[in-house]
Amino acid sequence: MGESISRSLTQVSWLVLAVVVALLFGSGLPGFVERATALTPDKQAALAAVGLTPLVYATWLALIGAILAVVYTVVGGVLVWRRPTDRMAVFAAFTLLLFGGVTFTDLGPFVAQANPALQLPFALLDLLGRGGFTAFVFVFPDGHFVPRWTRWVALAWIAVQAPVPFLPTDQDSSVRTLVEFLTPPAFVLGLATAAFSQIYRYRRVSTLAQRLQTRWTAFGFASALGLFLALGVLQLTVPGANEPIPQLVIGTVANAAMILVPLSIAVALLWHGLYDVDALIGRTLVYAALTACIVAIYMLVVGYLGSLFRTDDNLLISLLATGAAAALFQPLRERLQRTVNRLLYG
To answer: Domain limits at 325?
Structure first.
């Protein structure tokens, strides 16, 4: 009887919170679309060249954000309905709901613009989403900090993030300057410590089932984070990456990458014994490394021959580089496959 009441309370609490998150998300969406349509004439012309309007552009950006929030929410709902007595599953369900529906959306300014009274509730939920997601990467899959000292690194990382939801976006302040200064080192230190914690736990503490769960989440988090950071670097370094069309592509791919996080958590907690994660990890590593090698070979050949013949744009050089990459594709794939097999299986 007591367990049934606890199960119902957990599910009802999650459902009420989901309704609140949906209402906050909906209140901020019109402001987001309005801001996204306010493009310069040059950007409007770039959109018109491919048959798009600013409204279509803004609607697409809003849609991919909404899809991500829905996926996080649905996965959280599945977890809380399938495993309402599993503390790790319940923690993941609430964390995914808040992180995907509040924190990652970055709708705070638009929610405050729609109704200033909602600014504080949104900021508090944002803080819970940041703190919960940060703690999750340290304590999965058994709910404990391993080693125990890692809790202090997690707390420091959360402390750096804590002021962010409450900072005004339209003005500079000493607190904002300090947070922006501390964020990169806190991110690097926190992520490195979380990775060390998971490796230490995997090798010395985890059971066989927990190791399989860890492999699933490691695959999802590493794939999502790697692709997300690569796109961020691309956006910062490639000329024209901030134009509307590249922004649409980058935003779509980035959100698709982040969807891997809740999906991997769901599989880890509910169906980790049904699929061969090692084969999936192996193929991902092989083709990621193969892609990097092929791109490097192409750029090396083009750069070397271009320098040798003192030309930057030559069809023959491009064809030679493509031929070299194609000729090395199969040998490289076989060599990388053997290397990954040794890494995974010994």
So the answer is: 276-346
Q: For the chain, how many structural domains are there in total?
A: 2
Same domain, residue pair 247 and 333: no
pTM confidence score: 0.81
Mean pLDDT confidence for 322-328: 69
Using alpha carbons only, what angle is made at residue 235 by residues 245 and 186, rounded to the nearest 5 degrees? 140
**Helical H runs in 148-276?**
150-161, 174-204, 208-237, 244-258, 260-270
Residues 214 and 203 reside in one and the same domain: yes
Q: What is the DSSP string of 117-160?
A: GGHHHHHHHHHHHHHHHHHHHHHTTTTS-SSTTHHHHHHHHHHH
H-type helices in 1-118, by residue range?
A: 2-37, 41-49, 54-82, 87-98, 108-114
- Domain end (from 275, 309, 327): 275
Rounded to whole angstroms, the maximal C-alpha distance in the chain is 82
Angle among Cα 63, 25, 251 to the nearest 5 degrees reads 35
Does pLDDT of 281 surpass 70?
A: no
What one-letter code names the amino acid at 82?
A: R
218 and 296: one domain?
A: no
Same domain, 345 and 232: no
